[in-house]
Design brief:
9 strands, 7-stranded parallel beta sheet, 256 residues
Length: 256
């Protein structure tokens, strides 16, 4: 019996992460989704199952090395090989530099970057050890593509705005991590990509705290999570002769 293809989504929240999980489930992937609180995953897991997909949920803190190692080991041994890793932890918590604390700053870096390093490292170890024909191209011919690792970035990955010192520091570090991993792992068959989500996303957070921005939804002025998920699926489908490392997504009216 063939092993299932697994998509692991770290930070499968109610917007981008959940949309990515649903997108890959529709393509026949077994989805393994994580959040720090397992209960918050239940609506997403149920939706995937109702739509005919297969999903497993895990309550896991991606900042803790032992939990990450145990999670990846469990999935690889009990469910199937991880073909896609999507790291989607946000860590956005604005605050003035005048009142920011070392504890908050460190926590944001741990969430945005350290967690990406831990999960990326553990999954990469498994991917590079696979046979070259582990992932089939669209043509059906075996190629030396062994999986995809996609890190979700933000506007803060490129520039530090006022009141976002902690978030920017973590996201810029994650971008550097993705670049380093890509340069090392691409020749080994692992497609490492970094996305820059530059703009407000259609979430309850934006609707509640930024109603003027949310009002632009009617004009396609904020990002639709399902359309972000389509871009992630596209990245995973790319043949290795035309891999994208960095992809930025923003509404047409967003200034950059």
């Amino acid at each position: 019996m063939a092993q299932p293809k697994v998509c692991l989504v770290i930070g499968a929240g109610d917007a981008t992460g959940g949309a990515v999980a649903r997108r890959f489930a529709r393509e026949g992937y077994t989805v393994c989704a994580t959040r720090r609180t397992l209960d918050k995953l239940q609506p997403l897991l149920e939706q995937i199952r109702v739509e005919g997909g297969i999903a497993h949920g895990f309550g896991s803190d991606a900042r803790k090395e032992d939990e990450v190692i145990a999670l990846v080991d469990h999935i690889e041994t009990q469910i199937g090989p991880i073909e896609v890793l999507v790291f989607n932890i946000g860590a956005n918590s604005p605050n003035s530099i005048l009142t920011e604390t070392a504890r908050r700053y460190t926590k944001m870096w741990e969430m945005a970057c350290l967690a990406g390093f831990l999960t990326g490292r553990e999954v990469a170890k498994r991917m590079v050890a696979r046979p070259d024909s582990g992932v089939e191209a669209a043509s059906g011919q075996g190629v030396a593509q062994k999986g995809s690792i996609i890190f979700t970035g933000a506007t803060a990955s490129l520039r530090g705005s006022a009141n976002f010192a902690g978030f920017s520091g973590g996201k810029m570090a994650l971008r550097a991590l993705a670049q380093s991993m890509a340069r090392e792992l691409w020749p080994l068959g692992v497609h490492v990509a970094h996305t820059i989500i530059d703009g407000a996303i259609d979430t309850e957070f934006i609707r509640t705290l930024f109603p003027d921005r949310y009002a632009l939804k009617a004009q396609d002025g904020i990002l639709n999570p399902d359309h972000i998920a389509d871009a992630y699926w596209m990245l995973h489908q790319q043949p290795r002769d035309a891999w994208t490392h960095e992809l930025d997504l923003r509404p047409y009216m967003e200034r950059f």
